[in-house]
């Protein structure tokens, strides 16, 4: 015992040592001092090993006993009689089971069945059974970042990456992690020229492999390819027109001759098959094809002439097309952020900043002019103003129209809340000159108000990306099918603050502390497909291209909306997803694609589930101009008693010519009792009735009078003509009296108004020139 105490407590004890009855060891070095706690652990470990051995023996004996018992009962035919199960009444069992249990079982069975039906080739096999087979050649144009980019540089710093994908593969991940500086040097374009930097050569991968998978296991176009192959498509009648999405659209042709190659391939496919082609586009690919339609017709470019599209293209399938841009493109180039980065937790944000900071991401995206093509198009006309937006929801406290919001208005970097019209100059103010010049030289984000403007823009390459400044091709036989998802939260507006991080090189950053209303970590969500807003993917299809100004040839446009109904058992959303990328694997979308490619597209019916045509009880009318840009106009729906309120008249400075053949639903002056329209009138702080010169209103009245006298339409704003004595009213007299009253009201500044109005109403003069009105000073 004394020896044990010495080993445990040490030999420096003041107590008298007790003589041991044990023998003295030969050498004290053969023993070492062990603390008490460690000794206890060793004791417990020894016991634990014994328990494990015992448990293993018991488990093994139990398993052997179970096998013997199972074999005994398996040999007894009286115990399990499968034939007797036929006498069991399953309906009676269903009546006894709880309803909730039965419902869960049926849902599970349905999900399992859907999972089987969602399997590869299933949609194609179903279409094949209905007699659908390959007819038109198919050409697919992928979206932004979908196409893989591979290195073809032979300089010393590029040889290790030769023919390896630096975008869209695991090689990209490896290069980004192991050699971030070299990867950035390869992926970024020259800031001045917008082309390859010296010694760097990245090119878009070609063939079906270019866009079927982004990385291994993450499909993009693969399911569409599988189903196309099922009905007879192969590399001889299907083609992927991959492109380098980093470039500006003009540089597609300058560096890669992309549009020339696409034109030649389409013409060759038509010549071989004797069938027009069907073009499939996704996301940014829809903008690329719209640009191509203008390029191929334009003299000095494609030289195809105005009939080229009608000759070679049967249908355009526009899948989730960002025709009016994507709002998330703005924070991407402003601060290198988006919803995906703003909603990361603090630890992930810290790690991302250390690995690839906001400034680095911002610099990288700005060096890619193709990304800036997706900045929002249409300004306040499409996206609203500081007090109102067309997609505002009922009861919403803060309008979507304020696109970039600053909580701290006293910050040195805060210019106040910004609309889309104001956000672009703010971006350029906080950017280098080379970026501003690159964007303004390559793209345009405005709105054309007259057919004359639209036709003039057909010859300006920077306008070709914008469907609000240019028109569709003169191809009356062309058919456009717009397929896109709805019902998924999508980025709509942002809260920003001054970037106070001394290590940061960006001026502003998303305010991740804002979680009010519909804002989540500083990102305000709205209606869309998770990436592109409904206004961008749906407006031109559902309304814009139904207008004569943008579709003079009457191209047939059908819209088919697909609600986002994700399968909780599928990581990609399953066969009914409406997500921006995952929709490419949606069963109904694949079925519609096969029908169009097989020549059965005429059987597709337009299907609209969203309120793209209606907002808060109003029907979308058309773009009209304001003194500071555009503002949506709304025409109220028909009332229950059959009376129809007319659409708002346009403002003066951009109105279309009176001889325009576009339907003039806005020519009649409306009653001004609608709050929504009153807001629209005061977008720029100018009252529409006062801003529009009287001669324009006079001419509109005269044309309306002519129509009334010709019995073409009823007279509005005055009593029912049938109630007037003598039957048909004297339209000119009544109008002249009305205008005399208006002239007397403005006699001080337009003293010749009565005389001029009389001449116009009598038909002796056309519309007055603005110079015929004189000011009160004169």
UniProtKB/TrEMBL annotation:
A Pfam family annotated for this UniProt entry: LCAT
Any one Gene Ontology molecular-function term assigned to this protein's record: O-acyltransferase activity
SUPFAM superfamilies, per the entry: alpha/beta-Hydrolases (SSF53474)
Sequence segments annotated as region (Disordered): 1-27, 615-691
Biased composition (Basic and acidic residues): 625-647, 655-674
Cell membrane among keywords: no
Gene Ontology biological process terms from the UniProt entry: lipid metabolic process
Transmembrane segment boundaries: 56-74
Keywords annotated in UniProt: Membrane, Transmembrane, Transmembrane helix
Name of the molecule in the record: Phospholipid:diacylglycerol acyltransferase
Upper taxonomic lineage: Eukaryota, Fungi, Dikarya, Ascomycota, Pezizomycotina
């Amino acid at each position: 015992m004394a020896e044990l105490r010495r080993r445990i407590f040490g030999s420096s004890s003041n107590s008298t040592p007790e003589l041991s009855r044990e023998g003295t060891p030969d050498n004290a070095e053969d023993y070492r001092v062990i603390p008490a706690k460690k000794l206890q652990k060793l004791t417990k470990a020894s016991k634990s090993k014994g328990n494990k051995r015992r448990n293993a023996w018991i488990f093994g004996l139990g398993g052997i006993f179970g096998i013997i018992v199972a074999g005994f009962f398996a040999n007894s035919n009286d115990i399990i009689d499968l034939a007797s199960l036929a006498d069991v009444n399953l309906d009676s069992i269903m009546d006894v089971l709880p309803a909730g249990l039965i419902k869960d079982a049926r849902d599970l069975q349905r999900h399992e069945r859907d999972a089987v039906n969602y399997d590869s080739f299933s949609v194609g096999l179903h279409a094949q059974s209905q007699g659908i087979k390959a007819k038109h050649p198919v050409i697919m144009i992928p979206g932004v970042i979908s196409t893989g980019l591979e290195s073809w540089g032979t300089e010393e710093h590029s040889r290790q990456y030769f023919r390896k994908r630096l975008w869209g593969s695991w090689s990209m991940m490896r290069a980004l992690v192991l050699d971030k500086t070299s990867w950035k040097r390869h992926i970024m374009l020259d800031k001045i020229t917008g082309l390859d930097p010296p010694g760097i050569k990245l090119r878009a991968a070609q063939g079906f492999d270019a866009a079927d998978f982004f990385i291994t296991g993450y499909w993009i176009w693969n399911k569409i390819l599988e189903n196309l192959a099922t009905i007879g498509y192969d590399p001889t009648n299907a083609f992927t027109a991959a492109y380098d999405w980093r470039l500006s659209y003009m540089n597609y042709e300058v560096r890669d001759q992309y549009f020339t190659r696409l034109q030649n391939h389409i013409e060759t496919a038509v010549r071989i098959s004797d069938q027009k082609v069907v073009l499939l586009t996704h996301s940014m690919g829809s903008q690329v094809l719209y640009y191509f339609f203008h390029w191929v017709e334009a003299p000095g470019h494609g030289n195809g002439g105005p009939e080229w599209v009608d000759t070679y293209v049967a249908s355009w399938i526009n899948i989730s097309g960002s025709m009016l841009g994507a709002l998330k493109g703005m924070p991407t180039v402003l601060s290198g952020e988006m919803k995906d980065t703003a909603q990361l937790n603090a630890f992930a944000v810290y790690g991302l900043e250390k690995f690839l900071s906001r400034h680095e991401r911002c610099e990288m995206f700005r060096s890619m002019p193709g990304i800036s093509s997706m900045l929002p198009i249409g300004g306040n006309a499409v996206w609203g103003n500081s007090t109102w937006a067309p997609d505002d929801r009922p009861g919403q406290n803060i309008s979507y129209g304020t696109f970039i919001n600053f909580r701290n208005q006293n910050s040195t970097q805060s210019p106040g809340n910004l609309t889309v019209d104001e956000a672009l100059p703010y971006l350029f103010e906080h950017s280098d000159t080379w970026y501003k010049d690159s964007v303004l030289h390559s793209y345009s984000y405005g709105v054309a108000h007259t057919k004359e403007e639209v036709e003039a823009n057909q010859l300006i390459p920077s306008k070709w990306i914008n469907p609000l400044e240019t028109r569709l091709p003169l191809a009356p036989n062309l058919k456009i099918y717009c397929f896109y998802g709805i019902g998924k939260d999508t980025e709509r507006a942002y809260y920003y603050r001054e970037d106070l991080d001394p290590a940061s090189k960006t001026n502003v950053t998303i305010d991740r502390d804002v979680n009010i209303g519909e804002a989540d970590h500083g990102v305000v969500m709205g209606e869309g497909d998770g990436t592109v807003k409904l206004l961008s993917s749906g407006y031109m299809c559902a309304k814009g291209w139904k207008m004569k100004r943008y579709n003079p040839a009457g191209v047939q446009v059908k819209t088919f909306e697909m609600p986002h109904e994700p399968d909780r058992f599928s990581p990609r959303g399953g066969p009914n997803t409406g997500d921006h990328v995952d929709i490419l694997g949606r069963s109904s979308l694949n079925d519609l694609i096969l029908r169009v490619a097989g020549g059965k597209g005429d059987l597709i019916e337009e299907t609209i589930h969203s309120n793209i045509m209606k907002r808060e009880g109003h029907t979308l009318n058309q773009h009209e101009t304001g003194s500071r840009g555009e503002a949506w106009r709304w025409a109220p729906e028909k009332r229950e008693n059959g009376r129809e309120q007319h659409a708002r008249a346009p403002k003066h400075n951009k109105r279309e010519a009176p001889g325009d053949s576009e339907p003039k639903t806005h020519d009649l002056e409306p009653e001004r009792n609608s709050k929504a329209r009153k807001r629209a009138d005061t977008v720029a702080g100018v009252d529409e009735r006062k801003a529009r010169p009287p001669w324009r209103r006079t001419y509109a009245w005269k044309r309306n009078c002519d129509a009334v006298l010709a019995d073409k339409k009823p007279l509005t704003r005055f009593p029912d003509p049938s109630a007037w004595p003598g039957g048909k009213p004297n339209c000119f007299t009544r109008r002249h009296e009305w205008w005399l009253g208006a002239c007397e009201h403005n006699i001080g500044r337009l003293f010749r108004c009565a005389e001029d109005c009389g001449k116009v109403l009598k038909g002796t003069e056309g519309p007055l020139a603005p110079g015929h009105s004189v000011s009160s000073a004169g």
